[in-house]
Amino acid sequence: MSANSGQPRHVLIVDDEAISLLALQRFLERRGFRVSTAGDGYQALRIHAGDPADVVVSDIRMPQLGGRELLAHLRREKPDQQVIIMTGHNLPGEDLDGDGPPVPVLLKPIDAEELLRRLREMTGYSGP
Amino acid sequence: MIALAYFSIPIALVTFVQRRRDVAFSWMFVAFSIFILLCGTTHVFSAWTLWNASYGVEGLVKAATAVASVATAGLLRPLLPRAIALPSPAQLRATNARLEIEIAERTRVEHEVREMNARLEQRVAERTAELESVNTRLEQRVRERTAALETANRALAASEARHAGIVSHSADAIFQLAVGIDGKWRFEAANAATCKDVGRPLDALLGHTLREALDEDRAALLESQCRDCIETQAPVRFEVTLADQPSTVVWQTVMAPVVDPASGRVVQLIANARNVAETRALQEELAQAAKLATLGSMAAGIAHEMSQPLNAIRITATDCALVLDEAEPDLPYVRQGMAMIRDQSARMGGVVDQMRQLGRRDTADAGLFDVAGPVRRAVELLQRHFASADIAVTLAIDEARPPVLGHPARLEQVIINLLANGRDAIEAARLANADHTVGHIQVEVTAEPGRQIRIAVEDDGVGLSPQVANRLFDPFFTTKQASNGMGLGLSISAGIVQAMGGRMEAIPRPGGGARLVVLLPARPACEATRQETNVGE
């Protein structure tokens, strides 16, 4: 969490479905977030390594490296990394939270306002 | 004294002659005896007359003597040469000896002959004994063979009676056509079901040609099948649907040729026709059920295909609503958003349409179509969904493709089924082996112009064992867990393909995985949509 509440927060969206990425990116950028996008887990890790995100919003079901695995990687590096999981399937049974901050799970089709509220909560950023 | 001598000699001679009866010319000896006797008597009388003068008696005696001596001499003369010729004792002995040698020889020969005879008789006896024993054995064998033949004959008769009973009572129409030298086909035998189906009594069929016995259409249909059967000298299978009866009848027929080994010519055609109308109706029901089951197994795919555009729509709609609430709404932004919503809605509409098509019961007749359409739709439906599970689906379609006959939606169902099976196989491989992460499903459509279209769906999943490969198309056979599928898919798919005149094959891939192939006969583009389908062996 950044102390400067005026700085645009960096959100990394990870989803293998291009149209979902696009819609979400448009929505969040309009609300003042800086948005990066990745099509799969590995790409997400690469981007995050070079330009860390305040919140990573990831779909669960992706090729190569899925949401769960991405979460594990991120939390290994930074145990309190904020992550939001999106899913088009049933809610995952296991406890994703682990030892870090809770991981909200949002069902697709995403309630964008709910997502916005969570992001603002997590980052302490309310927009421009 | 002289007299004594003279009298004793004849006595001796007579005695000799009497004793030796075998002396030749014994009468001569007797004649001598008489002569000598008379000579003696003469001498006696000479001496007598010295003292007594009985000259008269003496004269008689002398006369007698003279007669006797003359007679004897006379008789002796011719006898002489004969007496000289008499063989001497030495000669006789020699002759005897020779005779004895000859006798000995003869005796020896006779002995030999007897011995040979004895041996021959023994050999004959032995041979006779042999022949008798052989005879006995032969008779035994003949008895056995006769018994065996009788048993076989009885069994044959019983079997024939059984088969005749089976054929005559069979619900299938079973009939036999004789192939005449004139090229015509005549009924040689027909069971009750045939007569009933054709609607003619038996005597209206036997000996008559197809044209004479049946109506125009049926005769023409059968004739073309007979021709095929004779040309290929192999069994042909075909279906004939007759819709003009009280209820639709579908005759599934197998016709087999009987070839005369001597001439190599087909001399008979034997056919078995079964009314499968009810079966077909049940199959339709089952196909529908399986289609719905396929839809079920596609649910995750459908949900995915719907969920993604819906996600974008919802986010965009929320976004636009919020923008419109601002003091000065950015209308171009909203317009852009609306455009996105419109596009994504259309995409969802396409998926819904596809579902609708698949769920629809096929009422339309089979028609000619290009396989590329249904194959592409099936792949596109599941491609994205599979990709997010790390299964890459590739599609390659040959440019030149002849049309096939059938229902496109059904073929789409078959391809969806094959893709889903490929996905399941890959998931199973991943469960078994954590290293097996990458999954590929390759879909290929290749055309052999004029002959057939081959649609291959190849995966690198858990593969097929030979036992599984054999049973793969059996209804309710499944290698999946109970929750994952009823096991109807492949048998229904095979049924759909067969109804289109084709067949399916399952081939294990050498490197692991399986290759499922759909083969469909290529149709000439001008062929009308006839009800009859022709299926080669």
Provide structural commentary:
The complex is a heterodimer of chains A (128) and B (537). Chain A is built from four helices and five strands. Chain A has 128 residues and is an alpha/beta fold. Chain A has a five-stranded parallel beta sheet with strand order 2-1-3-4-5, with helices on both faces. In chain A, α2 runs parallel beside α3 (67-77). The longest helix of chain A is centred in the first third of the chain and has 13 residues, at 18-30. In chain B, the strands form three sheets. Chain B has a six-stranded antiparallel beta sheet with strand order 2-1-5-4-3-13, with helices on both faces. In chain B, strands 7-9-10-12-11 form a five-stranded mixed beta sheet. Chain B has 15 helices and 13 strands. In chain B, α13 runs antiparallel to α15 (489-499). Chain B has 537 residues and is α+β, with helices and mostly antiparallel strands. The interface between A and B is medium-sized, with 22 and 26 residues.
Keyword list:
heterodimer; A: 128 residues; alpha/beta; 5-stranded parallel sheet; 4 helices; globular; B: alpha+beta; 6-stranded antiparallel sheet; rod-shaped; disordered C terminus
Largest β-sheet summary of chain B: 6 strands, antiparallel
Number of strands of chain A: 5
Oligomer state equals heterodimer
Strand content of chain A: 15-25%
Instruction: Supply Rg of chain A.
Output: 13 Å
**How many E-type strands of chain B?**
13
The percent range for helix content of chain A is 25-40%
Helix content of chain B: 55-70%
Within the largest sheet of chain A, what's the order of strands? 2-1-3-4-5
- From the N-terminal CA to the C-terminal CA of chain B, the straight-line distance is 149 Å
Q: What structural category arises from helix and sheet content of chain B?
A: alpha+beta
Distance between the termini of chain A: 17 Å
What is the largest interface, and how many residues per chain? A-B, 22 and 26 residues
| Shape label of chain B | rod-shaped
Give the helix tally of chain B: 15
Strand content of chain B: 15-25%
